[in-house]
Amino acid sequence: MRMYDIIHKKREGGELTGEELRFFVQGFTRGEIPDYQASALLMAIFFRGMTRRETGDLTLEMARSGDTVDLSSLPGVKVDKHSTGGVGDKTSLIIGPIAAACGVTIAKMSGRGLGHTGGTVDKLESIPGLRTDIPRQEFFDIVKRTGLSIIGQSGNLCPADKKLYALRDVTATVESLPLIASSIMSKKIAAGADAILLDVKVGSGAFMKTLEDSRALAQEMVRIGSQVGRRTVALITDMDMPLGRHIGNALEVQEAVEVLSGGGDSRLRDLCLELSANMIYLGQRAETMEEARAKAAEAVSAGRALQKLAEMVEAQGGDPSYIAHPEKFTLSPACVELSAPQTGYITRLDAEGCGLAAVELGAGRETKESSIDFGAGIVLLQNKGDRVEQGQPIARLYAQSEALCRRGKERFLASLEVGELAPKRGPMIVERIAEEG
Ligand code: URA
């Protein structure tokens, strides 16, 4: 078999066989196929697409390219969740504890933030003492004890995806449906859960800007999950504006605690309750979605979900008093308050722009090597659709210095528009996609 023939076949619109995809994934992972040939194939896939069978085969080959996690020694149905990335997305910190408080087993590996999107591992590490770099056996012991653990990715999981994603990033081949679907699902399959919940974002801050594209991605991933025997459900959710009111690591833990205490931003709370209900349903702790929704709401109102987060924090070496008293978090010392430039409605508060402002403030990473300031970020006092008076405070920015605050302020203001007419604010949860329809 020759890589040249595989590239040629795809360039002409042919369908690659399972053997051809295995040859490519294995050869590329081992370093036997050079980047220039892999890049050519990625570009051919970008333009020609893939059939469902090809996407499924590519996913499985990538999932098998390194270690896989065997969660079978853990009790119950293990449910994982993946979000396609967003700004202010602290949902894992909220829905993991809610679902675990309802008896679902959550043994989750999460990522770090990059660019305008944040990562759960960074948010967790803003809790003093908390470890996310936990050896496999200890991770399993915590899950057996508490029903919940969220750690960083460890081991050699999906090396093919790591290499391919880095190449896609520099060859303008990220935005390809079969490549995104296989990249996400290969990691979820290798991570070993029995069932997978996908939060597919749509809007200005998302990979997929239109409903049509996000629906196609969600359908493809749900189909791949079912094909490999993992029950998979996708929710398509809004990412046109930041999720909730806090952007930044310690700030987002504070907001997660607020929601777990029964308060917080209503759109964020609604999304978290619906995501948790889906996890409870997938984890077979409820027979219907109605029952699952009731269980999720009860876990919050009874305080069991918040208690579950504190248990996990303590089990991972963190100081649980920060969960009981989130005001203990130290925020960055320089703070500026921004006010509305005119009276009217906030007609645009671009999620990606706010995410980039948070990076300028020090809350995110420009490159994988950048360090982050856990106490930096943005508190939105108003969000898209809110009515504001000229001069009314709309956001507070936190950073290590006033110079950083100024940089963040510039970015933030570029993502904001105030106009006379109230904008249409679409629903938070746009669609649910499951194999059974
Ligand atoms: N997230 C991933 O993990 N992979 C992609 O290709 C896109 C988003």
UniProtKB/TrEMBL annotation:
Root EC class: transferase
GO cellular component: cytosol
A biological process term (GO) from this entry: pyrimidine nucleobase metabolic process
Reactions performed catalytically: thymidine + phosphate = 2-deoxy-alpha-D-ribose 1-phosphate + thymine; 2'-deoxyuridine + phosphate = 2-deoxy-alpha-D-ribose 1-phosphate + uracil; uridine + phosphate = alpha-D-ribose 1-phosphate + uracil
EC identifiers of the protein: 2.4.2.2
Domain Pyrimidine nucleoside phosphorylase C-terminal: 345-419
GO MF terms held by the record: 1,4-alpha-oligoglucan phosphorylase activity; thymidine phosphorylase activity
UniProt xrefs under Pfam families: Glycos_trans_3N, Glycos_transf_3, PYNP_C
Keywords, sorted A to Z: Glycosyltransferase, Transferase
Protein family membership: Belongs to the thymidine/pyrimidine-nucleoside phosphorylase family.
Subunit structure: Homodimer.
Job of this protein: Catalyzes phosphorolysis of the pyrimidine nucleosides uridine, thymidine and 2'-deoxyuridine with the formation of the corresponding pyrimidine base and ribose-1-phosphate.
Protein name as catalogued: Pyrimidine-nucleoside phosphorylase
